Amino acid sequence: xxxxxxxxxxxxxxxxxxxxxxxxxxxxxxxxxxxxxxxxxxxxxxxxxxxxxxxxxxxxxxxxxxxxxxxxxxxxxxxxxxxxxxxxxxxxxxxxxxxxxxxxxxxxxxxxxxx
Length: 115
Description:
alpha/beta, 115 residues, five-stranded parallel beta sheet, 47% helix, 5 helices
């Protein structure tokens, strides 16, 4: 499977480590150059530096061909936007980690506008 992971904090990096062991085609996205350099040196994955909420970054990461997009940044709103922008016909399963319930309520209210 082609999997894009946006956000390489503790959660995103741990998911990436697990996925590398399962021999998936991984693309890792983070806006920190230092984090990307570390991931590039330690994981067998393609790394893309940039904001995962930007369509151009997601396109550079290959979102059109992805089977799964995981948004795991520390910013709930970035996760929501990333998941929403990742929903293209070929991307069957965007996943978004959102512990902040107020951000979730805003997303549900805005969803009818976007769909």
